[in-house]
Fold these 4 entries.
Entry 1:
Amino acid sequence: MKEILAQVKQYKKESFLAPFFTILEVIMEVILPFVMALLIDDGVSKGDITKALIYGGIMLVVAGISLISGMLSGKYAARASTGLASNLRKSMFRNIQRFSFSNIDKFSTAGLVTRMTTDITNVQNAYQMIVRIAVRAPIMLTCSIIMCFMISPDMSVIFLIAMLFLIVALGIIMVSVMKVFNVAFKKYDALNASVQENISGIRVVKSFVREEYEKEKFTKASGDIYKIFKKAESILVFNSPVMNLAIYSCMLTVCWLGASLVVNGSMELGQLSSMFSYIMSSLMSLMMLSFIFVMLTMSVASIKRISEVLKEEPDIKNPESPETMMRDGSIEFKNVHFSYHSTSEKEVLSDINLKIKSGETIGIIGGTGCGKTSLINLISRLYDVTEGTVYVGGKDVREYDLEFLRNNVAVVLQKNVLFSGTVLENLRWGYEKATEEECIAACKAACADEFIEAMPKKYNTYIERGGANVSGGQKQRLCIARALLKNPKILILDDSTSAVDTATDAKIKQAMRESIPGTTKIIIAQRISSVQDADRIIVLDDGEVNGFDTHENLLKTNEIYSDIYESQIKGGGDFDRPQN
Amino acid sequence: MKKKNNIPGSEFPKVKLSHLGRIMGYTFRHYKVSCIVVLLCIIIQALCTMYGMIFIQSLIDDYIKPLIGVPDPDFSGLLSAIIRLAIIYVIGLAANYAHGRIMVNVTQGTLRCIRDDLFRNMQNLPIKYFDTHQHGDIMSVYTNDIDTFRQFISQSCPQMISSSITIVFAFVSMVTMNIPMTVMSVTMALVMLFVSTIIGGKSGKYFGRQQADLGKANGYIEEMLDGQKVVKVFCHEEKACEEFEKINEQLRDSADKANTYANIMMPINANIGNISYVLVSVLGAILAINGVGGLTLGIIIAFVGLNKNFNMPIAQLSQQIGFIVMASAGAGRLFELMDSKPEEDEGYVEIVNAIIHPDGTIEESEKRTGHWAWKHPHKAEGTVTYTKMEGEVVFDGVDFGYNEDKMVLHDIVLYAKPGQKIAFVGSTGAGKTTITNLINRFYDIQDGKIRYDNININKIKKSELRKSLGIVLQETQLFTGTVLDNIRYGKLDATDEECIAAAKLANADGFIRRLPDGYNTMLTGSGSNLSQGQRQLLSIARAAVADPPVLILDEATSSIDTRTEKLVQAGMDALMKGRTTFVIAHRLSTIRNSDCIMVLEKGRIIERGSHDELIEAKGKYYQLYTGNFANA
């Protein structure tokens, strides 16, 4: 809650003006029936045109003020609430940008998007309610009660009884309905999730001819939804009759008692009719309050989800006095242990000790899930080690400035993405000020130049979101070029040429040897052919280094390596290669 | 553009009555009696409220005024009148509750019918529909659009009816009382209507813009968060924030305007109502004093009250405009999805259990015999022929394109004998998966013929055809449920033992037993708690339990690492034994022992033959095969 309110920031003025004008509007609305009564009693009833005109005039002025304050309160409420929503989105986005990889892993993309859209909209609506109606209802209530007491203290007692009855009745209804709604919304989410699943799995559904089965499943779930929502709303429908019961009872008693008061002269006719309108408006505001209560309780969950993101502290932070010099591209792992969760019993990497010289080309090979990606993620501090130290250029990676470190250790991720924008714009992610010539040179080294030149607008071709309009192999080459533009001391390719055909793969490696000989290159691959000409190869198995030597030596001494080699050569071959 | 906006209603969002009518059609069809009862309740309520209002007015003239100044006032007349009113109120309350309670059934029931219908229709849509529509857009019909009908059915519709009744009633009463004052009232009501339309239109326009801006922000957030790790690696955080703030500011602006217009509607309408009140009372007073039309004080007071009743429903109706617009837009999207053409199926050949007699004749059987036959009715002669199902698949000069103007496959000819293993190799986009999608008729071919056991597949019922094909896709899709449920998806009446046997065949048994609850472990989010390789093993088990005569394996083992694949291979071989199998794979280990390997390039089969034959031929296959080792 605190985190949310802190985001009001520059909209504080509006947040105060909205309730202020609401109060003004309410006061005018309370005065109106009073003037109306005078208009009827002193003007129209007595046939006094002048008085009628005077009171009519006053009423017009009051209505005018009410109109203007109503509009202003509406405007400021809109500004304050949408402003708050905008600030919340901004802060959430900024905080997410500060997240480390392990923070990112904690939230799903879909979850974060919902938090930034639906949840924020909920909070926006709730805030608008608060600055406007939540102020309006209690004030309306108080003013109406005061006016009632001014007209007739005796009769107001009835009205207090009615109010008490309403509070209890509405309270019971709301509390019991909230319980059912909480269950109902969860079921509703589950239903939507299953539809989502059905849509994305439609090919499986159709292949197994399970349409009827899916229909039955859905009909059952939607029947459950029907039942539980019916239950919730059946409770909610008591609201209106209960409300009306209170109003009607008040009306009847006021009619009866009021009539005798008027007859024995202690009350004016006009006062009686204004009494009616005050009763109406105060009971109405009570009803409104109960709705606000429901709205707010519903937005509590949203507030919680937003706060979670705002409160999430990035667990990788810049050191106090960051180092911005890197001697060379040497890497050393010393007694490194790593696991993604501090609680998980099994380590992803255990006791890794490696020394890589600057300028070396290193291959990493091993089965899926053996920790290859985890290993290289430690070098650019995408994750922090659980135990031990990783040194780059002779210094602990935790001493470097994060941005400096990541600019010097370029990683081409396994699950890589391009962003919507031109080819050049995407390339300049690597180095913002890169000239077109530098970009072209990088693309040439990554063997991307040829296909870019074949595109209609060449380097200004628009890449669609996620790189949807380029093939997998083209995407990978663009990603390599993008990383090359950083001109890094260490370049890491995490299975980055898996969709590139073998010949091109070899060409890229050749180009790298020539264009960036001083850069330490680390290549993760599935295929032995991609790494066998590296200076040395690391064989990882189940989070441990099983071998670290040249191709020839490993073939002789390492069982796992020779095993993989055998299976790839004998049963080898790979045909799913793009031909361009 | 600016000028055009000044014409009231010009940019007013279009409300398609036909769409809303269809929504109401759902309600009427299923809840005819309820609707009539609700209508009656609404009328009763409106009349009761009216009566109450009029009573309050007459209370003064008829029951209180005569008593003023009377020395010993007799309240019995008043008492009986109040009792009468109390009875009316009780009736009103009953109608109020009945209306609310029945409406809950009607609203929720209608939503349920719409949901069920929507889902049923969606299941019958062709694959092409899902290819060409964003899944997020389809989902939004279920979540956002159907929600808009709740408000429309339960609030807007009854409100429209009761408001109309009140308006008509108040109007008729006003006319009978005094014409000039009625003219004044109606004039002000028209002003209110006019202002509401303008503001409502503006609000609608900005709500539309807000939706668009929200979509944009949504898209940007999704794109950036999807690539968040790349953003980090390239230290692009600051730029991403800047870009987002621009989009965010746009959204704030349109949301601000949309909400402002929506917020000011009520105060404006209410105060036009107040102004109307003043004008009418002053006019009434002037008329009364000048003795025009024999106006009495009681009539003026009653009229002023009526005037309020006349204005209130108009203001209430204008509050509903937004909901009606939203429901109409939602209905538009709903019916677009519902009216999409379902998958057509003109097939009539079915699969039946068969007893095969030694002399080769085939007899249909009720029970599972382990043999199947195609039941081929001939309408003209009224006879039925049975053909043994063997799993022979023939492509004869097949051309296909997802769009008429762009062919993906050209003149595909292939012949798969029962039990043969046919492999497809070629680069991404060469058309391998497309071929398999034609066998199960996810798509229909443009030219040529596909025959299955010598029957044109167009004559086979789609459901029967697909039942006879077991498919394992590269993108594994599992469903929320236990591991056992997921395997059983292949054959709904499979026993636990059959499922476990299938899992053993696919070499999935080992890892399943290590899961926290073994076979009863719940899988959620398409099995996100499993690795990609484990998911593939499960989907192989799922196909195995279905026990189909023909198998299609589309990169079924691509995510299983080479060492594990060796273990699965034995199971796969057992699975493929005796079945016609189509294999798409890029690992030679998977395809090497195929009876025939088809090399595809740009939608054509350029080479075919066994592994040894193709190596011998030294063509493209040889190149691809040896290409891997050229750089060794």
Entry 2:
Amino acid sequence: MAAADNTTPLLAVDDLTVRFRTDEGWMTAVDRVSLAVGEGEALGIVGESGSGKSVTALSILRLHAAATTRMPTGRIMYGGRDMLGLSTREMRTIRGGEIAMIFQDPMSSLNPVLTIADQIGESLRLHQGLDQATARRRAVELLELVRIPDAARRVDEYPHRLSGGMRQRVMIAIAIACRPKLLIADEPTTALDVTIQAQILDLLRDLQTELGMSVILITHDMGVIAEFARRVMVMYAGRVVETSPVSALFRRPVHPYTDGLLAAIPKLDVDVRRLPAIPGSIPDPTAVIPGCRYSPRCPIVEETCRREAPELLAAGPEREARCPPRVAALAVERVA
Amino acid sequence: MNAPIVRVRDLVKEFQVTRGRGGPPAVLRAVNHIEFDINAGTTLGLVGESGSGKSTTGRLLVGLIPATSGEIELFGETITGKDGRRALAKVRSKMQFVFQDPHGSLNPRMRVGDCIAEPIDIAGGWSRGDRTDRVSELLETVGLPRAVAERFPHEFSGGQRQRIGIARALALRPEFVVCDEPVSALDVSMQAQIINLLLDLQEKLGLSYLFIAHDLAVVRSIATEVAVMYAGALVEHAPKTVLYATPKHPYTQALLEAVPRPDPDRVRSAAIGGEVPSVLNPPPGCSFAPRCPKVMDICRIERPAPRASGEGHAVACHLY
């Protein structure tokens, strides 16, 4: 595939909307989400449950069950083509080939009755047409690349023999087997212990540099975002509420939800008497909230917020936020 | 400071496991000679990764599972040993348990009011009116409207369900509550609400907590003292401010370093290698030795005993 120039992102998602069928009718899980990932870039998507972050990721690879999902609308541009228009066969060559994905739970993503060699080899045989012996040799190399000790022996084992951290390494080995240009990692360290999480984040960062991959990292953990991503997109109830370079976001969040989320995180380095919690709960996905979806919980809510759904507004260099009152206040501040 | 309401001495819990079909039974030592006290009105945060034995310790403490050896004293009654069962019956109503998973711990077929009143019904001796009043009072205590009593658990979010779980735990006015990862299944915005609720309840009702968690930041926000567990053993124990300011055990240091901070300017040092050892085949000596960056020869031979090092700080490490 021809290398894109600097102005064309590797992947550009435009106005993506995903709707699911539920008992209560159609529900909008992802509402007009746009994002772009440049070559070699690390984009973080952060949000709580029901924010639509995982659905966005799954939709990029069109991994939703057709029976309960309406075909997503919008555009997903990759390599000059809209992936929403590709045939199932064409999608299959992209999935696991050019764009790979790893998930939160490595146990349920691995086949319990196949050896590690079989599972890594599957993708190599499928996408690169390697024969059994070559695929096996390559599998050992990949296990070494993801720093699994004693790779030549481990390659013939079954997943249940491996710890959670080792299984996630195997998943990463499978994902990078075909040298993907983009790796989508959906909560890759959430199920792991903190010392193992640190190992996996180190590994992902090293691989990203070595292989020149772009990464979309989806997580609920602002700490993981701060450590790994260069740009971040904050989602709430199916919508993007803020996008920003990571350093600027943590220095000064614009959207009140980002504010609240950062304040509510328990602090490791200082003693805090009471955490400033966000009142209320995450809205039910089927609930209809007129205006801004954060308005019922927002500390700076205004009358219009409850009526008019706000758009994403420019809020500084490479920054956007879906909060007219805050963006206006920032503009006044900049003039003053 | 008040007298301890919980005293744990030399506590050991072993499980018999069979490996493979018809294989010889093996012994898994989940809790390995641990000791601590919990004073009235305070919170001991028990921190560890999976397999550290922290949940087993919590279950031992409220008598859900019997100890293999050692001593647990609750409110002055020794619940381990020969007369343990009788002693446990005396103090049982003074303690309760809050579980991690508010989905699995509430009966989906019972109305919320009945879930909360279940301990009252089991204890018996309450009139219908008193029971209803108590349920309303409990709901108010945990910040839920009265009408919630008529609804079913599945109608609520994780955070609200955890409030229901806490209301039920409080039904019989316990003095000591074991909270086993009560916020780890919750979203960040819900987590803070539940932590604040637990702090409010402690202030208002004078509760003591054993707060079990893997998240060191969560523990810092609630604990009075912190004990760090690794592979069944307590490796470090100190008042909260001391532990976070001057962690001594190399494992505690590695654990603190590994936590991702919401600070993009921070550069974390490379993760320590290796994994938590199986408690089935514990290495001789210190169980952290295979991963320890400061390991010495003696660490692989002799298990370090916890040693006091001032300010209520105890460390089980040959370095000190």
Entry 3:
Amino acid sequence: MNFDFSEDQKQLKDQARRFLENKSSSKAVRRILETPEPFDRELWKGLAEMGFMGTVIPEEYGGLGAGYLELCVIAEELGRSVAAVPFSSTVYLTAEFLLAAGSEAQKQKYLPKIAAGELIGAFAYAEGVGNASARNVHASVSGGKLSGVKLPVLDGDVADIAIVAVKAGKGLSLHIVELDAPGVARTVLETIDPTRSQAKIEFTGAAAELLGAEGAGEEIIERVLDRAAVLTAFEQLGGADRALEMARDYALGRMAFGRPIGSFQAIKHILADMYVSATLARSNCYYGAWALSTEAGELPQAAATARVSATQAYQHCSKNNIQVHGGMGFTWEFDCHLYYRRSNLLALTLGSLSQWEDTLIDRLAKRNAA
Amino acid sequence: MNFDDTPEEAAFRKEVRAWLDANAPKEYAAELKNSGFGHTALKSVDVGVASKAWQKKKFDAGWACLHWPREYGGRGATPIERVIWQQEEGIYAALSSLFIIGHGMCGPTMMTYATEEQKRTYLPPLAAGEHIWCQLFSEPAGGSDLAGLRTKAEKDGDGWVINGQKIWTSGAHYSDYGIVITRTDPNVPKHKGLTMFFLDMHTPGIEVRPIKQVNGQSGFNEVYFTDVRIPDSQRLGKVGEGWSVSLTTLMNERLSIGSGMPTGFPDLLDFVATLETPDGPAINDRNVRSRLASWAVKTSGLKYTAFRSISALSRGEMPGPENSIGKLVAGATMQEIATFALDLQGQAGALVNPEQAAAAARFQAMLLRSPATRIEGGTDEILRNIIAERVLGLPADIRVDKDVPFNKIPTSAKA
């Protein structure tokens, strides 16, 4: 049994960590948090130079043609550094939609640009409060023109193209819309995590091109969301681990009552529980990575497991990181809130935790009955 | 990243399977599979007799205590081979519970500290299941604070005289031998005045009283020592170094108890799929599903954490600290699952007779046994301290009794 990353993959991870410690420092993330600048363009350029956006994109479309295990270790490091870039929307979603359902011409047109860092994508699904599904999507396409309101769309304000879900009878269809075209109006939204911007996009007869078969939207979305769930789980894992380290380091250095607060059992037990949840999440993420990289039949179950576990772990670690820091953890000056914000944002993208819990049990029950 | 055996591992697994297929006591398979948590029972035969027979059969064919050296009754197998054996033995491992303490803790302690002659005398019958061993550590005054123990051993000529009381001794009522930690010097700080021995449980002056537990069974005992005389040759390690000897034992205890612990989740998933409510099967209820999801990911997380440790063994490395979470997660999860399963049963959740209760009363058995899982072999709180101190590197607790002679430490009686 070798249920671990290879030496080469671990080296790639180290390389990504060194790069991000330098280019996505807390100072760099705070620049996005505190200014109207929507994302870190310099970091985005650097990630493109490293070839990270094209990790799994085949060489014929300008990518590196490496595997998903490589993309998983990069995702973990992006999460650890709370990188302020539209990587997930572009790489885990837009590129995956194109790979899963795009025509040859669509792949030729967009994938090389994504691999080169020249194109940002977004997935426009939700239309207001509540998890999106075929039952609450009202946007529609008629004669190649798309109309409707999508909100919120992660990275929708900075994206060049969007994959838009629209009504198709009782189901859904997907369309590609170029966002600089007429009939597209975008408004930036204020959110709990300003380091990842979100937008409201109003389509009024915007030119739209079908992606995949008419009415096949739900099936494609499910497939792509499972893949994105594993990759996002690695971002969450990276963040959870970093939050645990921050809390541990603070507990070692902070003195109270004449001793380091980390010598009190009340603090030790909080940290031990953070370690437990991060360790469970890591093992479940590895399971997801294995399923994703081998296209295993278990992928739906593994993806939901990794997603639920990593969401719980990141929320648990980020909130307790603040608790261990005490009042200082609630200041703008300390970095705890960057992780608290991101953990709660990532818990909602791709469908919220309760929806994934429901999906997980649905899939486990079906497998169990089979 | 893969779950595949190496060619050597695959060959070993094939050999194990072939032997098990030809020799496992398949007549008990159905009953072992359905046995309640924490209690294995067989209708046709005494479970102790069946356990000893299975152990002897394994021993004779060279499949007992795989990781022990051959000269002491083992197979000299690698750690990964031991794991493969455990995976393949499956439900029949329920017949090994009599021997867990002896094989997992007493044996390794004897291996490290006994003389060559003693090892050759005592270890093979232990491996063969002919002798059962127990571990006499905890006391009324020393549980989590084990080094606070008070049972004393006093030098008397060529031997020692032991007086005192042990408690929570698993299997003492059917054990042939035991290892016992005693206080030999009360005038030095508590960790420095301890000495370890092994002894025959039939030595005059030993009295074993089973403790009736919450679940009605009696796996644990009180053991009283009244002027129990043993020769100095049964001392393990030097006088005053019993604490470091006990750490050898406890390290093995945490390894053997912490791996592959059940949470009860597969049982619960089966149960909610078949439990009919006025609104259809219980699993269709969204609240039920949300509760289940958290336990599903804990159970899965434990499984794949074990796989990560096994991968390290497969590469010939020591597993990382991730192993330490097993019992902490499994014990509490099982208790939650049991409570929830009873809740779904309504008032009938109170029934405990397997003939009358839902799911053959397996959740009631879990409910009544799981409190012990959270205590034995290190309480949840001690395990959190261990994770915090040894894995995360936080400072050890400030111990007010550290440099105080043992007989000057305040106790509950003289605080």
Entry 4:
Amino acid sequence: MLRERIAAVARPRHTVHAHCDIPCGIYDPHGAEIGARTVARMVELINQNLGDDPNQRNQFVRCVAVKEQHAELVKHEVRVIWGDYFKPEHVEKYPQLHDLVWRIMKQAGKCRQTVDAQAAADLQALVKEFADIFWETKGGRPQA
Amino acid sequence: MPSTRPRVSRPGDRDDLGRARFRAGVRFGIGIAAVGVALAPPVARLVASWGLRSAVEGTSMRPTLEPGDWLLVDSRGFAERRPRVADLVAVPDPTEPSRWLVKRVVDVDADGRLELRGDNPAESTDSRTFGTVDAAAVIGRPWARYWPPHRIGRVR
């Protein structure tokens, strides 16, 4: 009781940020974009119908494995930026953000389940939309 | 009040007693004043810092400051002198002035602008990104940590 009252009085009134953001590379949607591109490329390779000899089958399985991994990578990268970087004022400015992240999660799942080129293209488009919002909050995408 | 009651005394001793008590009173007064003078600057500093008590967020000032540290930031810390190299400063973020940063001064140029750096430069956004900061923009000087209990003390 007394402790709580003391704590209430002593609690800081301000925050001083010993902060770090994009220039040291902690937040960057590039990883998610690369992941989505990789998924699309794997779908393309898988649909080329490689053939039946062991080497071709090996290649096929590898493509599927990479597609699985990169779809999960997209989800991971997007979740980190969504959860750690975006602040309430960003969400206020981009009210579609939460829904967009949810759709990316769903779409990445769909890309794991199928070898649908359209699904992969849609995932890329959604991730690009997410990256665009991120860079808008940063005052513009850096020139490569 | 016993002191106002007429006391039993021999002739002649009354003045001496009065003088001794007067001297004791003066000494006491000087003592109180000295303690006051000695305590005035820290008390004034505390008062000037209380309104700017601040919580640290982020890791760019490790190992000096840890996220979650509670600091006293002296709003008059640079009233008498300009920030110098190695001082800690609280400044508005030049890229987002509504939030405050805590960084260290690593250089002061001829125009009095400050080059700021985090003590943990690998995880710091500072003057390398946003350039130098006007010394006049400094909000205050972080000088003490009052929480957590095992790390209470001065920060520099």
